[in-house]
Design goal:
Number of domains: 2
Shape: elongated
Radius of gyration: 21 Å
Oligomer: single chain
GO molecular function, one term: metalloendopeptidase activity
Protein name: Peptidoglycan DD-metalloendopeptidase family protein
CATH class of the largest domain: Mainly Beta
CATH superfamily of the largest domain: Glucose Permease (Domain IIA)
Structural class: mainly beta
Keywords: Signal
Number of helices: 2
Pfam family, one: Peptidase_M23
Length: about 290
């Protein structure tokens, strides 16, 4: 199956799933502090990190417990995500609940409902603060799906931020205010982009949902965080084109919006960034390109 056909099918499946139902949140009063596709341990985050006051973890929908991991099982070693439970739902969607202490009767659980308790926060993990790592796996297509596309919506009034922009060419970095002068040639556009989070009480930098870059009115970069897959051990965000982690994240909070061959004259750029609640931020800048 061609890549673009596969992405079309996936988008149709996600849209169909959203129209039929939405997953319940596995915790009460969730506070999302890390989003799908974020910069995590030198790779893309494959799910969400969620803080909650109530430590009880419930399935997001009816399903079947197909796997669990805890230190009571022979030969178990602590992992980065700690103890976890995997539940399989309809349409071959699986949900992962990690960083939890599975319920004592987890081995006896087969069919579960959204009211059952899978466990509590507190399983062994490498994180300093207890939180739930929640991921959605589409086992039919062999990929992770952004959980926020399937979970019930929660209030988020904060718009994404575009804090700064810089250009990189053979001469080095050039900071962009509103106008900048740069020599013609191949240039990479980088920007400090993030979603500030969903709560005024807890500040955190998260990945947005969609990023677009326009040059003189023409879209030259597009990325949305709908799904990711692993290829030879490397995570790839699946958008219009696959995006490797090292091709996107540039360190110091910057991301790459691709390269462009600049020619002498005036160039106008616009960056648009949106989050999962359709809050949007835009920023334009003008370049004077010289020989």
């Amino acid at each position: 199956m061609k890549k673009h056909t596969l992405l079309f099918v996936l988008s149709a499946v996600l849209l169909f799933a959203q129209q039929l139902y939405a997953f319940n949140w596995p915790v009460d009063d969730p506070l999302v502090v890390s989003t799908f596709g974020g910069d995590k341990w030198g790779s893309y985050a494959s799910g969400l990190e969620v803080y909650a006051e109530n430590a009880e973890i419930r399935p997001c929908d009816d399903g079947e417990v197909i796997f669990y991991e805890n230190s009571d099982r022979p030969g178990t070693l602590p992992g980065r995500i700690g103890h976890f439970v995997v539940v399989e739902h309809e349409r071959k969607l699986r949900t992962l609940y990690a960083g939890i202490e599975p319920a004592e009767d987890i081995s006896e659980m087969t069919g579960v409902t959204a009211s059952d308790i899978l466990g509590e926060l507190g399983g062994i993990s490498k994180s300093a603060r207890l939180h739930l790592h929640f991921a959605v796996i589409d086992s039919e297509f062999g990929q992770y799906v952004n959980p926020l596309l399937l979970l019930n919506s929660i209030v988020d009034n904060a718009s994404p931020e575009i804090r700064s922009i810089r250009l990189l060419n053979e001469a080095g970095f050039t900071s962009v205010d509103k106008n900048a002068v740069i020599k013609a040639g191949k240039t990479e556009i980088q920007a400090e982009i993030f979603d500030p989070g969903m709560s005024d009480d807890y500040f955190t930098l998260m990945a947005p949902y969609k990023i677009q870059l326009f040059h003189n009115g023409e879209e030259i970069f597009y990325l949305n965080f709908e799904s990711l897959r692993y290829d030879a051990g490397s995570a790839l965000i699946q958008s219009r084109e696959d995006m490797k982690y090292d091709d996107f994240y540039r360190g110091d909070g910057y991301v790459s919006l691709g390269e462009i061959s600049l020619v002498p004259g005036d160039s106008r750029f616009e960056i648009l960034v949106s989050d999962y609640s359709e809050n949007e931020t835009g920023r334009t800048f003008q370049l004077t390109v010289i020989e």
